[in-house]
Amino acid sequence: MDNLSQTPADPHDYATVNVVWGGLLTALLRFTAREGRTGPEPVELPVLGLATFALTKALSKEKVGVWARQPLVEPGDDGDRHPRGRGLRYVLGELVTCSRCLGTWSSLGLMGLRVARPREGRIVAALLATAAINDILQASFTLLCAKANATQSGAQVAESQARRVQAVEQSPGRASAARR
């Protein structure tokens, strides 16, 4: 993260984002108290965590989330996305490109849905958690294939080098030089 003095935003821009998040959290807590609702059971937290991961990744990294990022970020010369503009727009650009930052907002939204509409919240969380598990499995499979390919490639290189050494050792010029 850049030093605040190196960004085109003021502390009050960051405070605005924090106040909005805190206001939404307060509204959720007041709703639960007024309606007599409770939060999810501890057993639901892994599913909600995976759902938060999937939603956050979709919004902050994937093509499907371009609509949310495009007004706030621009591609940089280094291939990364960088926040656009100044002030609050810049801060929101930072938010949508930071998966950890956006994760707190995704979590709040999913928790709000789970509390306000428990049935629908469980369905959405399960769907997103399944997508996250698929994403983790796909990434693991890709990594496993890359390691297997690297191991196979390394074995082929070693075999090729061994054949070259053997050919040099068996060459007629080398044999006569060794006899002298």
Would you give an account of this structure?
By secondary structure, the chain is mostly helical. It has one domain. The protein is about 75% helix and about 5% strand. The protein is built from seven helices and two strands; from the N terminus they run αααββαααα. Strands 1-2 form a two-stranded antiparallel ribbon. Strand 1 and strand 2 form a beta hairpin. Helix 1 (about 10-35) runs parallel beside helix 5 (about 100-115). The protein is elongated, with a radius of gyration of 27 Å. The model has no long low-confidence stretch (mean pLDDT about 90).
Mind sketching the topology for me?
Blueprint (H helix, E strand, L loop, with lengths): L10 H25 L9 H16 L5 H4 L3 E3 L5 E3 L3 H11 L1 H18 L1 H53 L1 H8 L1
Antiparallel strand pairs: 1-2
Tell me the series of helices and strands, N- to C-terminal: HHHEEHHHH
Low-confidence stretches: none
Read across the widest sheet, the strand sequence of neighbours is 1-2
Report the helical percentage: over 70%
Radius of gyration: 27 Å
Q: Outline the biggest β-sheet.
A: 2 strands, antiparallel
The computed structural class is: mainly alpha
- Count of folded domains: 1
Q: How many strands in all?
A: 2
* Beginning-to-end CA distance, first to last residue: 69 Å
Number of helices: 7
Strand percent estimate? under 5%
Nearest-integer average pLDDT: 91
Indicate the overall shape.
Answer: elongated
